[in-house]
Amino acid sequence: MVLVPVPGRPVGRCPAVRTSPWIVSDDLWERIEPLLPKKERRFRRPGRKPVPDRQVLCGIMFVLHTGIQCKHLPQELGFGSGMTCWRRLRDWNEAGVWQQLHEMLLAELNAAARLDWSRAVVASSHVRALQGGFRQGPLPVGRGRVGSKHHLLTEGHGTPLAAILTGGNRNDVTQLMHLLDAMPPVRGRLGRPRRKP
């Protein structure tokens, strides 16, 4: 196979493949930035300048992509400290940023008719707590399973509609109604927002 060089494109690399999936694109940043809570500037004792939100978001994406602990985030990458990334993730989660982003993206997909409402899928995955806390008492008889379980409701193409977290010993069937209740109203088309798949 012979590679023919194309002007302006590096040889041997597919232009559609990103080398660093934790780098936030301009398009994604334009959607996320208005959702982030604004911090008031302190004039009396300003301290050092905060790390820009976009860099911190890249650090959060790096931690989620690689699976490392926040405290082991390399400073050389320029995302700020791991503690900074963890605090902003906590603050943004409490402010409802991720829920708002999820609802906005679902509305865009629904407006473009890219959601398959003809069927839905419920799935779950069990996650062991390797360095979890201490036991709080005896495990339930016969159903003991340490860790957590992620339950997920998706539409026909696999786009997540709702997710909940339960104890590791919960069955998918018992969580179906909770998943349906957790699904946000999906806007994007004329009429009332869709609440069920």
UniProtKB/TrEMBL annotation:
Protein name as it appears in the record: IS5 family transposase
Domain Transposase IS4-like positions: 141-187
Domain Insertion element IS402-like: 24-102
GO molecular function term, any single one: DNA binding
Alphabetical list of InterPro entries matching this protein: IS402-like_dom, Transposase_11
GO term, biological process aspect, one: DNA transposition
Domain of life: Bacteria
NCBIfam families: transpos_IS5_3
